[in-house]
Specification:
Helices cover 40% and strands 17% of the residues. It has 2 domains: 3-108, Nucleic acid-binding proteins (OB fold (Dihydrolipoamide Acetyltransferase, E2P)); 119-300, Hypothetical protein af1432, CATH 1.10.3210. With 348 residues, it is of the alpha+beta class.
Length: 348
């Protein structure tokens, strides 16, 4: 690859989404550099290993030619316009790049996925659940957040995590709505739980994430997020709202803040306190379930490994079976039984 070739504009007819890349495809498009590493082959030749990303997934890439020279042209967090060829390496798609250049401006919609649901509809559903709160103090507190325009704009856009679950625009809202919905169902199953405290805790448990993340071209932690984290930030945000409410009961305030601080469940998962009453205990498991189901579903959907099993998942320390059992109809045959089999049955 010559300097002249690198300076020429790459003009792909369209962006190749990572999820659509197949072996032997010619690939071109604009991608975010998530990881950049340099190394050497067994023969001592330098190469660049790059993890490229768009909103549909990540793909490992290699630059074999002029690696030392090209490595100085870009850094992690840059957007590259690339051309390359898709190969299969250890049963996974890998790109061998033949051309690349840094792009200074790009539509963030290429890199940041959005929640599958409609934001306004999800927000409407969340408001209906919050409206069920009967305790006057918790209702006032919740409404103070709902009426805060700056907060709500951030709340509707923020992701719920950087990498694992609901890590897309609107993810925090989607996750919060799901936790609120499940909290309602759990209080129906266990009526001794305080429904108002459960709903309020579900609504506010992750609010600190509006300050924890930056998400212009990709999701990254803010300085405040790295130094404090969303549990501390969320508790501080509740204190800010409580300061303007007269005679808010101290015991309710402490319980609500405990729910926020303890919802990760264990010290090793980032909670400074473990859940110490029923509602906090229940909310921890509800939050954990929703996060893990979403994260695992997305991992399986984006897995590019061929075959019935996923690639190894380091978070769960296991492989997962991608194939799902076919539903069986009343006649005992799978629901996807083909038409020819049906014809044979009718002709017998």
């Amino acid at each position: 690859m010559t300097k002249r070739e690198r300076s020429e504009t790459i003009n792909p007819p369209s962006h190749t989404w990572i999820k659509d890349i197949k072996e032997d495809n010619h690939v071109h498009g604009r991608y975010l550099v998530k990881v950049k590493k340099t190394g050497q082959t067994k023969n001592g030749d330098p190469f660049i290993g790059i993890t490229l990303s768009d909103r549909t997934g990540d793909v490992e890439s290699r630059v074999w030619e002029n690696a030392l020279e090209l490595a100085s042209l870009f850094n992690e967090g840059d957007v590259l316009e690339v051309e390359g060829h898709a190969t299969l390496y250890k049963n996974r798609i890998q790109l061998v790049l033949s051309n690349l250049k840094v792009v200074n401006e790009e539509d963030p919609a290429i890199f940041l996925e959005s929640a599958p649901g409609d934001i306004d509809e999800m927000m409407g559903s969340l408001r209906k659940i919050i409206a069920k709160i009967k305790d006057s103090h918790l209702k006032i507190l919740s409404n103070r957040f709902l009426s805060d325009r700056n907060f709500m704009e951030l709340f509707k856009k923020a992701p719920a995590s950087k990498n694992f679950h609901h890590n897309y625009i609107g993810g925090l809202l989607e996750h919060t709505l799901s936790v609120c919905q499940m909290s309602l169902r759990v209080t129906e199953q266990y009526p001794n739980l305080d429904k108002d405290l459960m709903i309020t805790g579900a609504f506010l448990h992750d609010i600190g994430k509006v300050r924890e993340f930056r998400y212009d071209t990709w999701i990254e932690y803010s300085d405040e997020g790295r130094l404090l984290g969303h549990l501390v930030q969320g508790t501080a945000m509740v204190d800010e709202k409580l300061a303007g409410i007269k005679n808010f009961p101290h015991d309710i305030a402490f319980r609500l803040k405990h729910i926020i601080l303890s919802h990760h469940g264990e010290y090793e998962f980032g909670s400074p306190k473990r859940p110490k009453f029923l509602e906090a205990f229940a909310l921890h498991f509800i939050d954990d379930l929703d996060a893990k189901i979403n994260g695992l579903r997305r991992f399986m959907e984006k897995d590019m490994k061929e075959g019935a099993w996923t690639d190894f998942n380091r978070m769960f320390d296991r492989y997962f079976l991608k194939d799902r059992p076919s539903p069986v109809k009343e006649d005992g045959f799978p629901a996807h039984a083909n038409d020819d089999r049906q014809k044979v049955l009718f002709n017998e």
